[in-house]
Design brief:
Layout (H helix, E strand, L loop, with lengths): L1 H23 L14 H59 L2 H10 L15
GO biological process, one term: cell division
InterPro entries: Cell_div_FtsL, FtsL/DivIC
Function: Essential cell division protein.
Length: 124
């Protein structure tokens, strides 16, 4: 009987140690559960992302528009400079062609003569 009592006693001790082991171990910190994202928060996040994307696209579109405008301005300035040079060249040519001696030579080629009685002097 003593052998049987020892076995029963050992089983009882094993059961108590099994039950006491989880209690004797240090408890792990409870895991904080993340609250699910509510529908309103999801809508706000989506609206924020869409607004950010729209603002980015608007900024890029404005940059492209200003770049194109700048290019057009530069082209027009180049055309104005070229036209200014052409005008200056033409003014020089007008002065050369309106020279009195040249006009007199051209008139002689065409058979015109100078009649001093028909000449009137006009002053500005």
């Amino acid at each position: 009987m003593s052998n049987l009592a020892v076995k029963v006693n050992q089983r009882a001790q094993e059961q108590t140690t099994r039950q006491s082991q989880p209690q004797s171990q240090p408890k792990a910190m409870p895991v904080k559960r993340r609250l699910p994202i509510t529908l309103g928060e999801k809508v706000l996040i989506v609206l924020f992302v869409l607004g950010l994307a729209a603002a980015s696209i608007h900024l890029i579109a404005n940059s492209v528009a200003s770049y194109k405008a700048s290019m057009d301005i530069q082209k027009l300035e180049a055309q104005v400079d070229a036209q200014g040079k052409t005008n200056a060249d033409l003014q020089i040519q007008v002065k050369e062609l309106s020279n009195y001696e040249r006009i007199w030579e051209r008139a002689k080629e065409l058979g015109l003569t100078l009649n001093k009685n028909n000449v009137k002097v006009v002053q500005d």
